[in-house]
Amino acid sequence: MKATGPPVRLGSSVALLTGASSDPSTVSAVTSMLTTDGVQHVDQISAASSAAAGETVIYVGGPDENAATAGAMQTLGVTGADALPAEGYVLATGTVAGHPSVILDGHDADGTFYAAQTLRQLIRQGASGASVAGVEVRDWPGMALRGIVEGFYGPEYSDADRVSMFDFMAATR
Hints:
The protein is an alpha/beta fold. It has one domain (about 1-145): Chitobiase, domain 2, CATH 3.30.379.10. The chain contains 4 helices and 8 strands. Strands 1, 2, 3, 4, 5, 6, 7 and 8 form an 8-stranded mixed β-sheet that branches. β7 and β8 form a beta hairpin. α1 runs parallel beside α3. The longest helix is centred in the C-terminal third of the chain and has 14 residues, at about 110-120. The protein is globular and about 55 Å long.
C-alpha cells in the first residue's frame, strides 16, 4: 500500500460504475458499507458520463467484469490486477473523468470482493463526512487455500457460529 494523494470524499451520493459481469455480492457489499457510512443515495451506473457532476464514482470489477476499469486505471497511471495471482486485487483512488474515484480492480470476482473488504477498512469519518484515503493497494493471498478447521476438541459450532465465522473470513479476506 502506498499513499497517492488526497482522500476521496464520498458525499451524500455515490455512483457505482458496474459492468455486466460485476459480482452481485460485491455490489451489494459495497452498497451496504456506503449506506452504513452515511452515504444517502447509491446509484448503479454503467458509464462515468451518467454520474452527476462532482459525484464520487466507485468502479466495481476488474476488466473481465467491468470494461471501464482498465481505462480508469490507465488514467491514474496504475497497473491493474491482470498480472496478479488469482484472488489478487488493486484498489486505487484519484480523479477519473472529472470525478473523485475509487477503483476496485480484481484479478477475478474473488479479488474484487477482497478489494471491497479493503475499501471497508479505508473509509474514515470526518467533520465533513466519510472519505477514503488516497492510496494504491496491491494485494493477493499468500496461500491458495485458507480457512479454519472445526476439529473434534470442544463443542461443535452452532449453525449461527458457522455463519458468523464465514462473515469474519470474508471481511478479513
